[in-house]
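Onboarding guide, step 5: your first structure request.
Type a short instruction followed by the sequence, for example:

Predict the 3D structure of this protein.
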Amino acid sequence: MGRVDGKVAIVTGAASGLGRASATLLAKEGASVVLTDVNAPDGEALAKHLGAPACFLRHDVSDEASWQHVIEETLARFGRLDVLVNNAGIVVLATIEETSVEQWRRVQAVNAEGVFLGCKHAIPAMAKGGGGSIVNLSSTAALVGTPAFAAYSASKGAVRSLTKTVAVHCVQRGQHVRCNSIHPGGIDTPMTQGLGGLAAQAGPVAVEALAKQPAGRMGKPADVAELVLYLASDASSLVNGAEIAIDGGLVAA
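The system replies with structure tokens like these:
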């Protein structure tokens, strides 16, 4: 039996990287998955590859109307919402002094406000169905200082704190919606691959920020997807408001 049989999940940023791996595993384990992304060609291709009942919706997570549309379409197609994986995110390689106001605002809009909007609109939909699980993708950048990624670090710190606030809010209201955050370290995704070239140009501070973790290897999207699946499933029913690092010991070192 699949670990999420009968559940309906939304995965943002599902066209590549961690979102793609998470959506694929959730579908394999029995969930109906709504894949969302601004990258429509790759998102649609993945939905076609996964087959029914997976589907794709174009989605800008920084736009509230787009969120409302995604939630409404999910309920219209599947009648419920059990899992939300807030994965979509962007990164800018720049220190606090190098970051422009425009860069700062754009990163916060996608990484922090996108998660806020997802939680805000998913909670009532989940509560109507008896509860659910929200999985927010944060980062080890929310747990340690990362000078090369000022805006990104701040946005992921916001996700960390918001996750705990959402968890307590839902407990107090008896909504049976859990909310947990995942904090990946170095994971081999298109985002980190793109940063590699930029880091080489940016000097030793940036290179150090992308250094391999103590495990001796970069993580794989599949590693994170397994943790997403656990938090989405009933096996984690007592896990709420937690922050889980998946970093090969980077934060502990």
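Each response can be followed by summary notes, for example: Residues 8-246 form a domain with the Rossmann fold fold (CATH 3.40.50.720).
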